[in-house]
């Protein structure tokens, strides 16, 4: 068999697999329809943890959950067609949680989830979520509301 024919077979095979995954929905990312969907996904991994409240991000791809456990906050995000959930305490944070308008930025110590930048519907929701976080280990302020941008 010639090298060109073998390479063509491999390329066609890979293309067929990629198209099959795409058309069966494997490349589609999910969303939470409501905060209750996010709570249900979190409870799938943490059934013993009591969730009091939650807030979805504006894109509905992540949620922060207020837990009954003092000093802990829940987090769940869409990961392809699956969910990644974490229970976060002060020792899990690499630095303080900050808010800038409707954005909450989290830095975590976990190598599987380093945190991220999460956009909420408005500044009040972002400030509420930031207030749920436990005191961080760093000397930086726990959270900061950014100044108003013009233009």
Can you describe this structure?
The chain has 151 residues and is an alpha+beta fold. The chain has 2 domains: 29 residues; 98 residues, PH-domain like (Roll). A 4-stranded antiparallel beta sheet has the order 1-2-3-4, sandwiched between helices. A 3-stranded antiparallel beta sheet has the order 5-6-7, covered by helices on one side. 26% of the residues are buried. The C terminus is likely disordered.
Q: Quick summary of this structure?
A:
The chain is α+β, with helices and mostly antiparallel strands. 28% of the residues lie in helices and 26% in strands.
Total of DSSP H or I helical runs spanning 4+ residues? 3
Class from secondary-structure proportions: alpha+beta
The number of strands is: 7
Helicity range of the residues? 25-40%
Spans where pLDDT lies below 50 across 5 or more residues: 137-151
Along the chain, the helix and strand elements come as: HHEEEEEEEH
CATH architecture annotation name of the largest domain? Roll
Rg is 20 Å
């Amino acid at each position: 068999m010639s090298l060109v024919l073998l390479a063509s077979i491999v390329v066609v095979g890979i293309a067929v697999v990629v198209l099959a995954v795409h058309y069966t929905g494997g490349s589609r990312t999910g969303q939470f329809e409501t905060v209750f969907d996010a709570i249900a996904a979190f409870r799938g991994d943490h059934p013993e943890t009591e969730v009091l409240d939650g807030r979805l991000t504006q894109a509905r791809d992540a949620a922060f959950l207020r837990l009954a456990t003092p000093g802990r906050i829940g987090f769940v995000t869409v990961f392809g067609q699956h969910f990644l959930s974490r229970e976060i305490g002060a020792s899990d944070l690499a630095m303080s949680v900050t808010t800038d308008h409707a954005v909450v930025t989290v830095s975590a110590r976990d190598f599987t989830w380093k945190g991220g930048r999460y956009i909420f519907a408005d500044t009040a929701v972002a400030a509420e979520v930031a207030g749920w976080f436990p005191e961080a280990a760093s000397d930086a302020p726990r959270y900061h509301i950014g100044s108003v941008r013009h233009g």
